[in-house]
Amino acid sequence: MTWVAWRQQRTEMLIAAAILAVVAALLVPSGLQIISAYHHDGISACLAHQDTYSAPQKGFASNGGCGGAIGSFTQRFEQLGNMVSLLTLVPGLVGALLAAPFVLDLEQGTYRLVWTQGITRRRWIAGKLALAIAAALLVALALTLLITWWRAPLVRVNGRMENGVFDLEGIVPLGYALFALGLALAVGAVWRRAVPALVVAFASYFAARIFVDTWLRQRLLAPVTKTWREIGAPPHFLDRAWVIDQYPSDRLGHALAPGGGKCGPGCVVASPSGYTHAVFQPASHFWALQGVETALFGGVGLALIAFAAWWTRRHVS
User: Fold this and answer.
1) Cα atoms found within 13 Å of the Cα of residue 266, Cβ hemisphere only
2) Beta-bridge partners for 228
3) Cα separation of 114 and 15, whole Å?
4) Residues 253-312: pLDDT tens digits?
């Protein structure tokens, strides 16, 4: 049974492996270049004395040579980092792809032959789904390790709380892969049409990711709020943090204008009163946010996989 499942799944696994190989071929040369620039430009030495400066995007450029070096390093690889952020779609693509053999079996009716060869429905379903789950998690893990290595110097400078970085590090890619796989399996089990089911599943995955990135994530954990007097460089607690909102305020944190004046991560708002209020997720919340979001996507994904197994066992004949 395991050998047959592997034979049926191997085309999709080879495609997933090819995707990883292409990503590695693109990232490894540029990753080596980033590491070389990080050490050659003395960025590590500057970061070792970070108590004497602020990050470049927070007014750090005024701190002599270190400010210029880190600012130049960040700007040099910023566009490349934005392009790598698009790889956040890969776990969803691979998850949906690995559901294809199961759905194709249902569409073409080849499962009937297996069920007449002494293989029970439960065993067939468990074998097919277990292989798909293992493959999806393995690909997501390999992608995460590769991108974590590639981004390591940039993360030391800017942190990893921004959406484009957060989505591809830690453990959330495993949850994304399970979610996409579960969507494709659930839709395919009910619809029994492979191509339409995979398209709908990936589109739903994409919509869910946008919703979480733009609205839900900042609400998964209670954010931190701080009000401070604007004297010198921005406060240390905003270093590498994800700033959700920032505006001029009085000393109690009340906005000076209705709705305040929103400000993106790392910027500084000039306040007539001399005070600024910020709502943010500090860098220390990274793993807590990762855990909650992984549990959300992974839990829903496993529930959808269980539904696909139940539906196939009860409604497919």
Assistant:
1) 13
2) 276
3) 25
4) 888 765 445 554 444 455 566 888 999 999 999 999 999 999 999 999 999 999 999 999
Amino acid at 18: A
Cα(176)–Cα(296) distance, integer angstroms: 9
Relative orientation angle of helices 2-40 and 64-84, to the nearest 10 degrees = 160
Q: Token pair of 85, please? A: 């952020």
From the centroid of its chain, how far is CA 251?
37
Q: Which of 279, 225, 277 is CA-nearest to residue 256?
A: 277
Amino acid in the structure at residue 275: Y
Element of type H or E holding 225: strand 224-229
- Spatial distance between the Cα atoms of 166 and 65, rounded to a whole number of angstroms: 30
Q: What would the mean pLDDT of 94-101 be, rounded to a whole number?
A: 94
Give residue-wise pLDDT tens across range 47-66: 876 544 444 444 333 445 68
